Amino acid sequence: MEAKREQPLLGNGRALAGLGPMLLLVAIITALRLLSLWLIVPYDLVQDEAHYWLWSQHPGWSYYSKGPGIAWAIWLGTAAFGDTVFGVRWLAPVAAAIGAICVGLLAKWASGDRRAAVYGAGIFMLLPATQATTLFMTIDGPYIACWALASLCAWRALRTGSAPAWAALGLAIAAGFLFKYTMLLFIPGLLVFLLLDRRARASLRVGPVLIGVACGALGLVPVLIWNSQNGWATVLHLMGHLRLEGGDISAERLERADPYSPLWTLEYLGLQILVAGPALALAAIGFGYALTKRRSKPVLWRAQLYCWSIGLSQILFYFVVSFFTPTQGNWTLAAYVTLSASAGMWLPVAMRRYRWRVRMWKALPEPRPRAGFLRRSPETHSQALWHWTIGVGIFVGLSLQYLPAYRLLPFAGDRLPLGRLERGPVLAEGVQERLEVLRTQDNPAGPPVVMTGHYGTSSLLSWLLPGRPVVYAASAQLPSVPEEGLFTGRKSQLDFWPEWSVDEQTPALLGRDAVIVGGGYEQWKPAFDRVEGLPDNDRRDRPTFIGYGFRGFGRELPRDASGGERE
Question: I need a labelling partner for 348 at 20 to 30 A (CA). Which of 157, 288, 437, 483 fits?
């Protein structure tokens, strides 16, 4: 009997039936997001976007810290709409739409209730963190879309055992890996579900599984090719990310790194609440309900078990990471793909109970007693959480679009931390003014350049400055000054491009002047004949120093090679 209940969900005729409302909802929201991005564009590119845009200008097998997925996606976007903010970003709302459709389909296929598709897709699109991924073209949006597609394909593969479903799962994992290496965390989540669910194990067949594995391995190919040609630089980067010896962070800096603090883990747990909002509680209630009904409703229980097995693979992994290094809120976004489906599967049951209570209450004679938390009519915990999810989601979505407008509020003013979103144009204007001044001074060594202490700043200035010049990032060359808390930075992709590498371009840069952004005076001083601080050089949206007569890092050069000292 149980198998008969599941079978209609797998048939081609019924699998896509009843999805009109969900697809219409996703289409309307995506159209509004694209229209807003086209007409309003409240923010120019942020550092990460500008850095990935630079990647797209240098096609390659892979890159220092990430796979090639984001570069390929931005190349496609700018090929269609040019090197504009819209060209860089328009695929971000599209990726969110793909993720929402996959979540809705998973909720429907797993529960057998078409209403779950609307709830699941709606929750996914209302999540605070998911909405942020639609405004900025970073790795998170496409990566989450690939995770959602893999979640959908894996469910279908386990229910049908078909080779095409396993192949689609492998390709989804391969595509996600090209955006973010933690796509591989999908595999242990899937293995946990297989260990816990006997029926899922019984559906496995060697042939289709091997096809899936082979397709998934395709994602490794470009990354392995690039790393084999570049000293396995990505491995060193990931080791440095975890503060392990031998990584791309100097031993001196590791020795002075802050020891573990319980606040790292507490902050991580708090971030999960901010990332998911009330929807996290809805998913937890849905899992609890399915657990209590696991014997009478085994199909629902397996669906919830699947969603939580996949989602917890991310959450538990980064929980462990929080004992080694502070975490960021966006690291676990993929976990809330299947947890959105979990909440979506629970809401048809929850809202049916809520409506029944309201009908019973309305049947009472007047005056009816107060029955709700915030109003007279009955309320339930799940109904309140769902309405709060809608309210918080709409508020966050509108706020993200118009954050600068909050400065008009009397209690806000300049207190809003919008520097990362707004500092770029101001910084570029200041750098350009200083460049114009330096260009009026005679220097036989060549025209002035721009140098920074961080790859993100270099990428952002390259995007914003007229003519989009090469802006050199010297973070890996800057010397350490421990007494001032200044240390050599990490390499970046810019160090692997000859025309951007400070080391390789040093002979061509000797003697030239530079506008400098970031870093400390004592770090830049050895590399120039003379370094002067600029007014407001303690502000991140202002140039920091002017360097006269570049001499190179870590080497003694003849005085005449830098054109001599000039007043």
Answer: 157
**339-386, pLDDT tens digit by residue?**
999 999 999 999 999 999 888 888 888 888 877 777 778 888 999 999
Dihedral of CA atoms 450, 451, 457, 463 in degrees, nearest 10, equals 30
Q: CA-to-CA distance for 88 and 111, rounded, in angstroms?
A: 37
Least confident of 8-12, 243-247, 334-338, 363-367: 8-12
Q: Is residue 370 part of a domain?
A: no
* Residues 123/279, Cβ–Cβ less than 8 Å: yes
The last residue of a domain, from among 322, 347, 372: 347
- pTM for the full predicted model: 0.90
Number of C-alpha atoms within 13 angstroms, CB side, residue 398? 7
Burial call 159-179: b when 16+ CB within 10 Å, e when fewer = bebbbebbbbbbbbbbbbbbb
Asked if 34 contacts 133 with a C-beta cutoff of 8 angstroms, the reply is no
Q: Render pLDDT for 78-117 as a digit per residue (tens, 0 to 9).
A: 999 999 999 999 999 999 999 999 999 999 999 888 999 9
Range of the domain at 214: 19-347
Which pairing describes strands 472-473 and 449-452: parallel, antiparallel, or unpaired? parallel
Closest CA to 558 of 531, 530, 529: 529
Long-range CB pairs of 75-80 (<8 Å, 24+ gap) are 77/137, 78/53
Q: Are residues 449 and 330 located together in one domain of the fold? A: no
